[in-house]
């Protein structure tokens, strides 16, 4: 049954459980490592959550619509290269900040064209794009990292308004914008109806193709915004940029209670899922677990959560795999 | 009796060599429940798909309020005031009742170019419709997934009413319902007609048909073989038309 309270920050059982899991993880890691429970480390965790949170918001919309995009990480990478090049060319900082979302939205448009116009299942279409984009990153970087980029975007992170960094404002605004679109506009209703059943949505007179295009473009723009933040804080773009981001995003969103089959989602859950994932990754690293193991933890969590959902009959399962009710 | 809302003249539908409908003439009147009966493959479904704009006829014409119309899509039919309630209800189980009733035609207000839903108005309008239909659903904010089959039919009927449908086509509305639920849906069907809607009901259930229909039309092998006022006929006679045992049908099928 759907959560009927839909306030902008209201919590349901799943979200309270996540909150408890985050708290528990914080307590365990604080005991296990003297470096974990410091203000500096908390800031690091929040800092490391920014890109994942933005990409996760887009992924929440995609999954709620019954879609998916496994190429988001690489889309962020491509956008990051463009942001980096703009920085190198000493473009105006405001324009540079906009390069990310614009490139991301354009790539989202390409994804939509492939998946919607080509009538290809989203997971397969975006997997194909993932392969193409990965090579594109290779070619664009010419085998060399972008590193030591100019500090043109540091204002984005450094400037404060009323004592709160501009970056925090941008993230809160992105969250509110996605929440409003999902819960307060016809677009959100249409998206959820498509996630429930594309055929029924069509019979109800919903412009299905238009909504699917819009969702892929929004998700792309959010990945592009993530690229702006990425370049602003690391000032380099490496060859492997974003390679585990799609996995992290899907895991965080599914942890948060969004249905992998579509039709049901939680934005608060996504925020908590992102935080839990980043806390676990950070805590394990501080306990001396090599970062090589991070995708194992993420992948294991994703499979674990889905298995529990299948066993508790929240998700129906057919002998052939996923089935619709 | 008032002028017919819709007149079908010589409606024929061929799929390649197969003639699914042959020269069907009939009239549908406002405020009347018209039952379409017939065996599987008799042409009922093809006929309502023509009415609903899902098929275009190979021959013949449809007149609405005396004006010829040609539907190229279900959307055209919907804007002409024809709503179809499919056997597989096109409701989104994950959305609330009021969201479903307005889905695709939401009330909205524009704030800085962003179309915001007018949720309160939609809720009130749906609460009013549910009350008017005596649907006994108290909360228009309940998710449709939590409703029973009969309550879902009521939501689909609300949706049709909300679109100001003048003709509501109901395809086997009681097929999957328990007895008490069936009674409820049948009384909803009557209430639709009393509100001035024309209702076309497709059913296999003779008892349902004789309870709500004003007029009964029987299809057999793509033709209209009988048209009776309910008061002038009885279930046995209708069954003999459906199976082809009636002398009139035999005579008709011999001549062709």
Write the layout of secondary structure elements.
The complex is a heterodimer of chains A (325) and B (256).
Chain A: H1 13-32, H2 39-64, H3 72-88, H4 93-117, H5 122-141, H6 154-158, E1 160-161, E2 164-165, H7 166-184, H8 186-196, H9 198-203, H10 208-234, H11 245-255, H12 267-286, H13 294-311, E3 317-318, E4 321-322
Antiparallel strand pairs in A: 1-2, 3-4
Helix pairs in contact in A: 1-12, 2-7, 2-10, 2-11, 2-12, 3-4, 3-5, 3-10, 4-5, 4-10, 7-8, 8-10, 11-12, 11-13
Chain B: E1 6-15, E2 18-28, E3 33-38, H1 44-51, E4 59-64, E5 67-69, H2 74-79, E6 82-85, H3 97-102, E7 108-111, E8 114-117, H4 119-132, H5 149-162, E9 167-171, H6 179-194, E10 198-202, H7 206-212, E11 215-220, E12 223-229, H8 235-243, H9 247-255
Parallel strand pairs in B: 3-10, 3-11, 6-9, 9-10
Antiparallel strand pairs in B: 1-2, 1-4, 4-5, 7-8, 11-12
Helix pairs in contact in B: 5-6
Name the CATH homologous superfamily of chain B. P-loop containing nucleotide triphosphate hydrolases
Q: What is the chains' assembly state?
A: heterodimer
Total strands of chain B: 12
Q: How would you characterize the largest beta sheet of chain A?
A: 2 strands, antiparallel
Secondary structure tally: strands of chain A = 4
CATH topology heading of chain A: ABC transporter involved in vitamin B12 uptake, BtuC
Q: What is the CATH top level name of chain B?
A: Alpha Beta
Structural class of chain B: alpha/beta
CATH superfamily of chain A: ABC transporter involved in vitamin B12 uptake, BtuC
Overall SS class of chain A:
mainly alpha
What pattern of helices and strands is seen along the backbone of chain B? EEEHEEHEHEEHHEHEHEEHH
Strand content of chain B: 25-35%
Strand order of the largest sheet of chain B: 6-9-10-3-11-12
Assign a percent range to the helix content of chain B: 25-40%
| Overall domain count of chain A | 1
Radius of gyration of chain A: 19 Å
Rounded radius of gyration of chain B (Å): 19 Å
The dominant shape of chain A is globular
Query: Which segments of chain A are poorly predicted (pLDDT under 50) over 5 or more consecutive residues?
Result: 1-5, 318-325
CATH topology of chain B: Rossmann fold
